[in-house]
Amino acid sequence: MEFYSIKGGNPLVGEVGISGAKNAALPILAAAIMTNETTVIENVPDVSDIRAILSAIRSIGAIVTETDRHTFKINGSQIHDIPVVDEAVKKIRGSYYLIGALLGKYHHASVTLPKGCNIGLRPIDQHVKGFRALGADVRIEHGMIVAEADELVGSHIYLDVVSVGATINIMMAASLAHGMTIIENAAKEPHVVDCANFLNSMGARIRGAGTDVIRIRGVESLHGSDYSIIPDMIEAGTFMFASAATRGDVTIHNVIPKHLESLTSKLEEIGCQIETSDEAVRVTANKRLLNTHVKTLPYPGFPTDMQPQITVILGLANGTSIVTESIFESRFKYVDELVRMGAQIKVEGNTAIVTGVPSYTGASITCPDLRAGAGLVIAALAAEGYSDVHDVIYIERGYEDFPEKLRSLGADIEVLDDEDPESMRRRMHLVS
Ligand code: EPZ
């Protein structure tokens, strides 16, 4: 298995470009099969979750052509009403978007129940509630979620929790329903807006995405479109926090600064300097950072997908910080690993009490999930000495070329393989 061998202590300095947003690309690639015409999707990140959804849509007959590493032509005219049982689909949470897409287009969907990152119980009752409100019969059978409708009819849906996935899934199915659907208490994340923009570019009539209330006037059919996915705000945030943790000076390009405001304001609060231009943000830190308190919230609040990364830098700040996770029930699993690097963090329920230490020390650590993995890499970059970061397969689900991008900023990071003798000799050589 591949792992990262990291020698910490180098400040990250330089410029880095951000890839397309994974969590926008997943629903957009699913929605692309809702028309029989060809869609061209650009700025698709080359990460394993995206390869999984592409594999799933290929498995049901969609024609997927890779024009270049980040551009895909998709044609859904050959899809039959086939259950989505592709192995890849079981591994990714975003496969649930195929339910909304297929239900909207064919009035019938049958998709293996999704798993995704191990960050606690992740129900899909709000998706089901939405599909039922549109007139579908939804049931679980043999590990599959099956949704069927004679016809889909617009409805007024109030989401009990703010859910990115449910908002997008209902939006997709409702785009091809009869009449008007209103989603109240909708998620406002940039990827919700991006998916709505894509559907609108295919002829859907969605208004209000990015606010609490989304109105969808159903249309008869959707048409082809050329569309470029927004930059990944979480990848951008991860590099911003890596710069802060290593007392670096990194300019992050291809970002939408508005999407990063909850992050830039926290970084300023703890003593970083931030310069923002139209499509870039520069983060510099030249002294020990200050403590603060953070609570994860739906957008525009502080994102849960940045919670491990901020906990890692607060672990090095001067004073005690409190980090409260309010979205997922079990997103502090990485703390044990961080404690092995010398962090002083105590978790009580959904709260971490973080007492800053002057430095971390390198250790052999294991990623429990995608964003925690990114956080642990940041810790290793800031630590004294060597760290081995294992189970990086999680990181590769959502970060394109992560080690290469970090290396371009001066990080001392190598990708090794613990089953390859040459790699292990290299590892011995590095630490001796
Ligand atoms: C999306 O997950 C992202 N995944 C997550 O990113 C992200 O952490 C999350 O949104 C929040 O921003 C994808 O886009 C593929 P939710 P999703 O539905 O849609 C509860 C990453 O690292 N809920 O907004 O599954 C749920 O349990 C991943 O890239 C219900 O109760 O999240 C959670 O507490 C991890 N019933 C809250 O709502 C439902 O039917 C928000 O979940 C749905 C959700």
Determine Rg (CA atoms, Å).
22 Å
Helix content: 25-40%
Task: Say how many strands there are.
Answer: 23
Largest sheet: 4 strands, mixed
Q: What is the mean pLDDT?
A: 95
Distance between the termini: 22 Å
Assign an overall shape: globular
Number of helices: 14
What percent strand?
15-25%
**Strands ordered across the widest β-sheet:** 21-22-1-23
Ligands present:
ligand EPZ
The residue ranges in which pLDDT falls below 50 over 5 or more consecutive positions are none
How would you portray this structure in words?
- The relative contact order is 0.15.
- Helix 6 (164-175) runs parallel beside helix 7 (190-201) and helix 8 (233-245) runs parallel beside helix 10.
- Strand 21, helix 12 (370-382) and strand 22 (386-390) form a beta-alpha-beta unit.
- This protein has a four-stranded mixed sheet with strand order 21-22-1-23, with helices on both faces.
- The protein is built from 14 helices and 23 strands.
- The chain has 432 residues and is α+β, with helices and mostly antiparallel strands.
- The chain has helices at residues 22-31, 48-59, 87-91, 97-106, 125-133, 164-175, 190-201, 233-245, 261-269, 307-314, 335-340, 370-382, 402-408, 421-431; strands spanning 2-7, 13-17, 38-42, 63-68, 71-75, 108-112, 137-141, 144-148, 156-158, 180-184, 205-207, 214-217, 226-228, 249-253, 273-276, 280-284, 293-295, 320-324, 344-348, 351-355, 364-366, 386-390, 412-417.
- Helix content is 32%, strand content 25%.
- Residues 23, 26, 93-94, 117, 122-127, 161, 163-166, 187, 189, 304-305, 327-328, 370-371, 398 line the site of ligand EPZ.
